[in-house]
Specification:
Length: 466
């Protein structure tokens, strides 16, 4: 369950020199767009404010349906860490009208092509992949859940228990989950005590049905959502059923602007733990709307691709070396080098970054590998499919989850116009720009270094800050 909810998106990006001016006026995204790979994107907004985007991929054997809300962990009140995760669980699994509640095991059986419902920092992405035969029924279920789920004492108790388990896993779970959370906390300047309060689950004590219902009615509504569908819409009808099923859902209240991302700073901190021992490095990025950010994204993604190959060759494919959530947390990339967890770990962390980035300094990476990585990144933000991916989608419909979530996030966060401009900059990125930003990536003034050593648990100390 926890591994399904990990945020493991593309890997990414940074800039090298002083910030340039932000992007100027952006062209409006077309309502109908035929890409060079022959896939077709359609966009429209319904009267209740729900934005809809579809991508038709000829030959796709399934349909991925993502209902994305601009609501995530950054919306949690200071006294209620974990609330957004509880809301996400309930929105995806609680009963709704005539629909019964469902467990994660039920979902494995009902949606063999795949499903996911990560509650991220800025968004909640509820995704189900249906077969062509299932699609009409699945779309109707998604619409029924958007109208409102039934929150009772039993369903709330189950959701709180699941979220407490997820929060606990940020202390003693998989390495990338533990270190990812610690790197974020250190970058935000949170104390060890504050981190422990957040992961203890105590913020969910006394959570009431009324609180959850009020939160859902405010945020889980058409005006704060995007519906994304990816499949072969030459074989199944989409627009008419979407209009019929979702058009009558009442528009929700006007919402204030989303909370801004908190300021992050370079730092170094050592923790002790009786469980996980690991090293993690956060790479602080400039603002996403900086025109050099695409070059940073390309640089760290290339490094991540090399790290993946190293992990694969050593039989450790299940241990991510890089993580970067471009759409959700673009201000912070993460690196997890395999280093001894001892008192010198913090100092060696910088050397590990330098070693990994060394092939980028002289660009010994073949041009074809450079282009393959760039094309895959562009696809994540609505660009043409790389060669061979269409056949992979036919063989493995689960891959459509990535496409659907990526398109939904682009529409929800910043909008398609922004990402079209960003994609253009990415496709124009060359080897010289990659080399130019390496000093920034390697500079300790833009790194967050965290080590977890053996011990009783807690913060051992902290040093260094930007």
């Amino acid at each position: 369950m926890l591994r399904r909810c990990l945020v493991r998106a593309a890997l990414a990006a940074f800039a090298a020199v002083a910030l340039l001016s932000s992007r100027g006026a952006l062209a409006a995204a077309p309502a109908h767009e035929v890409l060079t790979d022959s896939t077709v994107i359609e966009r429209w907004t319904m009267a209740n404010g729900l934005r809809v985007v579809t991508r038709s991929i000829r030959g796709a054997e399934g349909v991925a349906v993502t209902l994305a809300y601009r609501y995530g962990r950054r919306n949690d009140p200071a006294t209620r860490p974990g609330l957004a995760q509880v809301v996400g669980h309930l929105a995806f699994t609680a009963p709704a009208g005539e629909l019964p509640g469902r467990t994660l095991e039920d979902l494995d059986s009902q949606r063999p092509y795949g499903w996911s419902f990560p509650v991220m920092q800025s968004s909640t992405l509820l995704t189900e992949v249906a077969s062509l035969q299932q699609f009409p029924g699945v779309l109707a279920e998604v619409a029924r859940r958007m109208r409102g789920v039934t929150v009772d004492a039993a369903s709330l108790k189950r959701a709180v228990e699941q979220v407490r388990a997820e929060l606990k896993a940020e202390v003693d779970g998989p390495r990338e989950l533990v270190m990812g959370a610690l790197i974020r906390d250190v970058a935000l300047g949170r104390s060890a005590a504050a981190s422990q309060r957040r992961t203890s689950g105590r913020g969910l004590d006394g959570l009431t049905i009324a609180e959850v219902r009020a939160t859902m009615s405010s945020y889980l509504q058409p005006g704060n959502a995007v519906l994304c569908l990816v499949g072969d819409f030459n074989r199944v009808e989409v627009r008419r059923p979407v209009e019929s099923l979702f058009g009558g859902i009442p528009a929700g209240p006007a919402l204030p602007p989303p909370p801004p991302a908190d300021s992050m700073h370079a730092s170094a901190r050592v923790f002790t733990s009786a469980g996980v021992r690991a090293i993690g490095i956060g790479l602080l990025a400039p603002p996403l709307d900086d025109t050099l950010h695409a070059a940073y994204f390309m640089t760290v993604s290339l490094a991540g691709s090399m790290a993946d190959q190293i992990a694969k060759s050593s039989g450790q494919e299940d241990k991510p070396r890089f993580q970067y959530a471009l759409f959700d947390e673009p201000e912070l990339g993460r690196l997890y080098p395999d280093l001894p967890s001892d008192s010198a770990a913090i100092e060696r962390a910088g050397e590990a970054v330098s070693v990994l980035m060394a092939p980028l300094a002289d660009m010994t990476i073949p041009k074809r590998s450079f282009d393959v990585v760039r094309d895959r990144l562009a696809y994540l933000m609505g660009g043409p499919m790389p060669p061979g991916l269409r056949q992979s989608l036919r063989a493995n419909p689960r891959l459509m989850i990535t496409a659907s979530r990526g398109i939904a996030a682009c529409e929800l966060l910043h909008g398609p116009e922004f990402w079209a401009a960003y994609r253009t900059e990415l496709m124009e990125t060359n080897a010289d720009e990659v080399r130019a930003i390496l000093p920034r990536v390697l500079d300790p003034a833009y790194q967050v270094r965290v080590a977890v050593l053996s011990g009783a648990g807690g913060a051992k100390g902290a040093r260094g800050s930007r």
